[in-house]
Design goal:
Pfam families: RGI_lyase, RGL11_C
Strand content: 35-45%
Domain Rhamnogalacturonan I lyase beta-sheet: 22-102
Keywords: Lyase
Number of helices: 1
Mean pLDDT: 96
Shape: globular
Number of strands: 45
CATH topology of the largest domain: Methylamine Dehydrogenase, Chain H
CATH architecture of the largest domain: 7 Propeller
Low-confidence stretches: 1-16
Distance between the termini: 8 Å
CATH class of the largest domain: Mainly Beta
Largest sheet: 6 strands, antiparallel
InterPro entries: Ig-like_fold, Integrin_alpha_N, RGI_lyase, RGL11, RGL11_C
Domain Rhamnogalacturonan lyase family 11 C-terminal: 118-603
Length: 614
């Protein structure tokens, strides 16, 4: 296996040379979006390339740019025949690299600011309990090893249930498709995995470094892999797949519980082990009917600073547990476990959110786990907890320019804690605006280039806060997802099928995109199917559900930019954020360095190793 190794200093460190994290071998990600009589082209700057890498653009094998493209990774070919063939070449140290793969052509446009394409879906037949299926959360990984992303989408029946509600649900299904719409496989989690936002958190990532992503998810007797076979490996080898453990209320409170790795290319089962921890005595989790025992989150994290591990969380209202798993050399093994019931961990009980996040909190080159009001270290030991309890949203990134450590912003559900901002390494509170209500939503981001720096807001009209906790404006008209879309370094507001630009001084927004013919998912949560830097330059794509439910619709921006950044998918913190985005109450991704109007250039080079596809 050939490795490309780049040595850089971790952000915030002045003398420590850390190990490099292994990331996907992505191709150039060149796309050409129809714009008037020509095409808007954009492509990736890869994480192992010098920042001063320059580019040439070829249309139908003929170079069309007069001067090297240095300052951006985009280009407007103003007059070009429909379905022209484009390629890009990188020039590094005055040497030309290989020609890229041909551009992915997008001929559908939405107004002046976006192109889009559809990924047709194979909608399942209605479930045996009458549930009608609709596409729900998704994630991406290079399942085939070709340097392009494929998408894994979950199918949820309309009889899915919140943990607090009784009722029988139909099975949860996972499908894989290429971006061209080719169907790869379907995994059926079976009758012993209840359908609902808090039950199935699936991870898509290359865990063993073979150049292809695997899928990791909680399973049970009755689960079938992508080849249609019942689970048969490890602790599932003697499973009785005919038994349905569901009780009359629809809850599944007995029977085996597994964790399974599936092959990304075929969907075949690779390994199965007992889930940790098993549910045990249901009432030990805070109630006796099955609500709190089955509250799950999951993420990928680089716990050793080099290779990815999978972290699965069970419980957060009372007892809170985490298990870190490794899939290496064909073996599935536990790295460490954490349990708030263990002596010395009592203060971590009840300190989890409806999401899970990852950041290198203390700049040691290894990822730590943010559960909400607590941070668990890369070695599975507790780093700190504020004791402020559960919340419904979390934002974690570098929010203060030139500060050596990242920050955590979150709203709180109870205790009158309102919203808080703290340092991720120590838990030291920067500001805390108290409120007697359940602050159900909150956002932390830079949203206005005219007023650089991060701002924060939440429900109950607490105000728009700056880094000092001072009110500087009205609450924006959205507190959902945030997205890089319009070309500046601030983020835009993403809610339902709309993207808006917020002006703090005018207390108003400007509509940039209404994705007509497409809709969000997750009911009132109104989240995208997925938001990620899927291809093109550093800005993000948004995946919605076509109104008829028969296809995913992928939108990409055509707004001009003067900025050049590395693809966010080679920033490990951002990349693993795409893995956790589907957990419970979906949250938008953030990178592992400071990105805002006043950021320094050149940006930090990703501290990564690009693994060859085998």
């Amino acid at each position: 296996m050939r490795l490309y190794i780049i040595f850089v200093l971790i952000l915030g460190s002045t003398s420590t040379l850390c190990s490099q994290m292994r990331v996907e071998n992505l191709n150039r990600g060149l796309v050409a979006v129809r714009q008037h009589d020509g095409y808007y082209l954009k492509w990736r700057l890869l994480g192992n390339e010098p920042y001063n890498t320059s580019f040439d653009i070829y249309r139908n094998n003929k170079k069309i740019n007069d001067r090297l493209i240095v300052d951006v990774t985009s280009y407007v070919d103003s007059i070009a025949p429909l379905n022209s063939v484009y390629n890009v070449k990188a020039i590094i140290d005055d040497l030309e690299t290989e020609m890229s793969s041909p551009a992915f052509i997008i001929n559908n446009t939405q107004g002046e600011n976006a192109g889009f394409f559809d990924i047709s879906l194979r909608q399942p037949a209605d479930g045996i309990h009458g549930g009608k299926y609709f596409a729900n959360d998704a994630s991406v990984g290079d399942l085939t090893g070709d340097g392009e992303y494929e998408i894994v989408v979950s199918w949820s029946p309309n009889n899915a249930r919140d943990n607090s509600h009784r009722g029988i649900s139909d099975n949860v299904l996972l499908d894989a498709y290429t971006l061209n719409g080719e169907f790869l496989w379907r995994i059926d989690l079976g009758p012993n995995i209840r359908a609902g936002a808090h039950y199935t958190q699936f991870l898509v990532f290359d865990l063993d470094g073979n150049g292809r992503s695997e899928i990791m998810v909680k399973t049970a007797p009755g689960s079938r892999d992508g080849k249609g076979h019942f689970l048969s490996k490890g602790t599932a080898s003697d499973a009785d797949h005919s038994i349905v453990y569901r009780n009359r209320s629809g809850y599944i409170l007995e029977g085996p519980e597994y964790i399974t790795i599936f092959d990304g290319l075929t969907g075949a089962e690779l390994a199965t082990a007992d889930y940790w921890p098993l549910r045990g005595n249901v009432s030990d989790w805070g109630d006796s009917y099955g609500n709190r025992v089955d509250r799950f989150n999951a993420t990928i994290a680089y716990l050793d600073g080099e290779r990815p591990s999978a972290v699965f969380q069970r419980g957060y209202y009372t007892r809170m547990t985490l298990a870190a798993w490794d899939w290496r050399d064909g073996k599935l093994s536990l790295r460490w476990t954490f349990d708030s019931d263990d002596p010395g961990h009592e203060q971590y009980a009840g300190q989890g959110n409806h999401s899970i996040h990852v950041i290198d909190a203390n700049n040691d080159g290894r990822h730590d786990i943010v559960t909400g009001s607590a941070v668990i270290g890369s070695d599975g030991t507790g780093m700190h907890t504020t004791g402020m309890g559960h919340g419904d949203a979390t934002h974690v990134t570098y929010m203060i320019k030139d500060h050596p450590y990242p920050q955590i912003f979150m709203p709180h559900e109870s205790g009158g804690h309102g919203v808080s901002l703290r340092h991720a390494n120590s838990g030291e509170i920067i500001f805390n605006h108290r409120n007697p209500n359940d602050v159900g939503r909150g956002v932390g981001a830079e949203i206005d280039p005219e007023i650089p720096g991060f701002h924060f807001w939440g429900t109950h009209r607490l105000g728009l806060f700056d880094m000092n906790g001072d009110v500087v404006g009205d609450v924006p008209n959205s507190m959902n997802f945030i997205i890089w879309w319009d070309g500046d370094l601030s983020r835009e507001l993403m809610n339902r099928n709309r993207i808006d630009k917020w002006s703090i001084s005018n207390n108003s927004s400007t509509r940039l995109l209404t994705a007509e013919g497409a809709r969000s998912i997750n009911g009132t949560k109104a989240t995208p199917v997925l938001q990620a830097d899927l291809f093109g330059d550093w800005r993000e794509e948004v995946v919605l559900l076509r109104e008829d439910g028969q296809a995913l619709r992928v939108y990409t921006t055509t707004m001009p930019t003067t900025h050049k950044l590395y693809t966010f998918m080679h920033d490990p913190v951002y990349r693993v954020a795409i893995s956790w985005q589907n957990s419970s109450y979906n949250q938008p991704p953030h990178p592992g360095f400071y990105v805002a109007t006043d950021m320094d250039f050149p940006p930090p080079m990703p501290n990564v190793v690009i693994v060859d596809n085998k």
